[in-house]
Specification:
The chain has about 240 residues and is mostly helical. Helix content is about 70%, strand content about 0%. The chain has eight helices and no strands.
Length: about 240
């Protein structure tokens, strides 16, 4: 269930737009992960658990190892960011410093992966595919945990099933006001995945750079309200 609402009203639009950029980065990572690496997802662990069960049932060792790598990578990334951000309470106006640092670390990890991807022309061999798969899952786990730690200034960016369900329930059931940024986040996921696939078609060596660029852009955009808060120009909500 989506429990993090992106703030509106007098809060900077920079924050919800930065969240959309992170969602687009997630879409790009998932598209590359599933189609070019080991046919598992980097950030959608529900699907990976199902894929793991299917691989076990079909006695496919490669499928089992791919799903386990993704699960371990995601868990490690989430645990690392949870440790870094422990005890920090998020506010509605900006992301805390440790969340920003965690997202910068994610961008660096994605950039390293993009460099390795480009070095082999977008066609990694089996060993590099496993390394990139685990690294992509590590990055998505870190991003997911960072958004949890950011609190009210964030929203889920690596899994949107609960987001969509909550939007429908609040819109149809009228149990609360639906988040107007949800369609933008859903669209961002589609655009990110589509852009990654388009890059794989026309410039395969550069496709891996897209997620790193999007995460870096989100951090740069979020720096504006963060710096205003540091100067005392924003009142925490």
């Amino acid at each position: 269930m989506d429990t993090h609402a992106v703030p509106s009203g007098n809060t900077d639009r920079a924050m919800p737009i930065a969240v959309v950029m992170l969602v687009a980065a997630s879409g790009a990572v998932e598209a590359i992960s599933f189609t070019a690496l080991d046919q598992v997802f980097a950030g959608v662990m529900t699907s990976n658990l199902a894929l793991l069960g299917m691989a076990i049932g079909q006695s496919r060792g490669a499928g089992v190892s791919a799903a386990v790598l993704a699960l371990v990578g995601f868990g490690a990334g989430a645990a690392a960011v949870a440790w870094v951000t422990r005890g920090r309470e998020g506010v509605a106006t900006h992301w805390p410093a440790r969340v920003m640092s965690s997202l910068l670390a994610e961008a660096v990890l994605l950039a390293v992966g993009a460099g390795a991807w480009a070095a082999v022309g977008g066609a990694p061999g089996p060993t590099l595919r496993d390394v990139l798969q685990c690294g992509a899952a590590l990055a998505m786990g870190a991003q997911a945990a960072a958004m949890v730690a950011a609190g009210r200034a964030a929203a889920p960016t690596t899994y949107l099933t609960g987001t969509l369900a909550t939007y429908i329930v609040r819109g149809v059931g009228r149990s609360g006001r639906a988040d107007g940024w949800v369609p933008a986040r859903l669209g961002g996921l589609i655009v990110g995945a589509a852009a990654a696939m388009a890059l794989r078609r026309v410039a395969p060596a550069w496709a891996g750079a897209l997620p790193a660029v999007l995460v870096t852009g989100a951090v740069l955009l979020a720096w504006w309200p963060f710096s205003k808060a540091r100067r005392g120009l924003l009142t925490p909500e």
